[in-house]
Amino acid sequence: MAKGVIGQSLMKITERPPVVFVRGEGSWLIDREGNRFLDFVQGWAVNCLGHCPPEIVRTISAQAQTLINASPAFYTDRMLELADKIADCSCIDRVFFANSGAEANEGAIKLARKWGALHRDGAFEIITTENAFHGRTLATMSASGKPQWEPLFEPKGSGFVKVPFNDLGAIERALNSRTVAIMLEPIQGEAGVVPASRDFLVGVRELSRRTGVLLILDEIQTGIGRTGKAFAYEHAGIEPDILTLGKGLGGGVPLAALGAKEFVCCFAPGEQGGTFNGNALLTAVGSAVLDAVMRPSFLEEVARKGDLLKNRLSDLSTRLGEGEVRGEGLLIGWVLTRADAGRVVQNAFKRGLLLNAPRQNILRFMPALNVSVDEIEKMLSILEAAMAES
Predict the structure, then answer these.
(1) How many C-alpha atoms does 81 have within 13 Å on its Cβ side?
(2) Listed residue (89, 70, 138) closest to 259, CA to CA
């Protein structure tokens, strides 16, 4: 292997551009040559307060001087504090902390199946949707609906029945005595920011209650203020039985959560756990993130800036003859009917703008929730230039 090649000791799992980032400031990343990049990816909606926000920096510094990890076999004050805060601002009663969204979703699958074993005559099947993304563990890949994953890592987990997204009739037809839960994303992020309709979510909630199966909402990407409300389920006026959170919950550190209504919580000791889960350092950060996101007017500002971004992108799309702009809050997708999204991302990168293309015809925008209007306008200016070159 050639010496001096960037990343030569890393296992290759994705294509990365030949830059090395060394610093982050709000909506900006800086590489080791001092070049600045406007970041509208933010770790795939992870850095909800931007790079190195003061409240997280202060929290990590202070908490690291008192307690980092006491083992999940014990309570810590930070673990209890964050669990209470999540329960207070959401519809769920109890929380299990994890390190990644995939781990939280894996826990949701286990919890639903344990509940089915106890209360639904051993029911175990979970209805999921085509083009869904729930993680990269074997179980969560099995639950996901990405066509390109179908032949990989066989045999994957069984017991997942996939139906078209936003098709209530398909879910109803898939229900049977083996069904224990329906698992959905309120907005399919990896599919290209495809929102579930309000009628669909309301219908699924009514159907699940009527038939006695659980509703699991995967809010790994949409939760913690991303859509302009604390949780995306609020837009539809429904409540899930099981809720998974991640990404923005840690504001940049590895933190996720599995939450559930009291009647679903049925794990016995030893059935669920994790060496680092719920440690004091990360849950302290999660608490600081929630304090910031739940401040008066914060979510209103997210919704306002989301509307601005959506409207300005729609104007640009009309001028350029491109397609639909969709999403909620600061999770926006732009369907390109003429330009190649991957090439737009490359051209934008050359101009100092970081964008994401989950599909070859879709751009996804996931800026920090506290992105400024000036930064939105700067992004749009760079984007239009990048589109002209594509």
Answers:
(1) 16
(2) 89
54-64 vs 280-293: helix crossing angle, rounded to 10: 150
294 contacts: CB under 8 Å, gap ≥ 6: 89, 230
- Choosing from 114, 247, 305, 310, the catalytic residue is 247
The mean of the pLDDT values for the chain is 97
Would residue 153 show up in a list of annotated catalytic residues for this protein? no
- The question of whether 315 is a catalytic residue gets the answer no
Q: What is the rounded distance in angstroms from the CA atom of residue 180 to the CA atom of residue 261?
A: 15
- Selecting among 133, 160, 165, 231, the annotated active-site residue is 133
**Percent of the chain as helix, strand, coil, to the nearest 5:** 40, 20, 40
Strands 194-195 and 187-188: antiparallel
Task: State how far the Cα of 355 lies from the Cα of 140, in Å rounded to an integer.
Answer: 26
pLDDT band at 11 (very low <50, low <70, confident <90, very high): very high
Which of 218, 231, 305, 310 is an active site residue? 218
263 is catalytic: no
Residue 59 has pLDDT above 70, yes or no: yes
d(CA 191, CA 132): 7
- Dist CA 94 CA 264 (whole Å): 10
* DSSP secondary structure letter of residue 229: S
Query: Mean pLDDT throughout 343-358?
Result: 98
Q: Do residues 362 and 341 make contact, with C-beta atoms less than 8 angstroms apart? A: yes
